[in-house]
Amino acid sequence: MRNAFFQITISFAACGLVAAAVAAPPQRVEIGYEIARNGSVVAEVRERLEHDGRSYRLSQTWTGKGIYSLRGEATRSSQGAVAADGLRPHKFEDKRSGRDTRRAEFDPAARTPTLQRQDRLSFIWTFAFAPPRETATVAVADGKHVTTYAYQLAGRERVKTPAGEFDALKLVKRKDNPQDRVTEIWLAADRHYLPVRILVVDKDGMRLDQLAVRIALK
Question: Which fold has domain 4-217?
Fold first, then answer.
């Protein structure tokens, strides 16, 4: 599939949030991932969060492995404010080899609910500041479209990754029709609800599995 390994996060949605009295993650977090397509590693991903409790900056870099390295590199960035109920992005940028850069901007003064003003990078990290408590919907901007998704809570699960074994909260994307992808996300409840595994299964059975291989907290 063309650019399949760059698309793993495109169909991600989010879960409803209720502000919770939990500590924010450390001011610097870096997670390295490997993405496997049907069991074979096709990409490495590095994501970095920096925040001071008031504002945040996120970055993401994708690098292809093997024949997928010919497709170049993809980078995303998101910056904005830290609110009681999660991250509120102000600017988002998506750069990929061979494609025009996409950008999205949000009005900092708008009273739009936090889950209704997310971008492709911020929405999953918002759980580290306001963990999911109930099923809900999220509007995600990618610089071209705004798409609404819904996720449902699927309980707690122990999940093993190269970065370790975690007590995780599992989210499952609601399928509105049989052709929709299956998307599952595991958030490490014992590690600030950071995303440690993301699985996408296409309608033809193709599996993209994103697993944390290292986590650095500062």
Answer: outer membrane lipoprotein receptor (LolB), chain A (2.50.20)
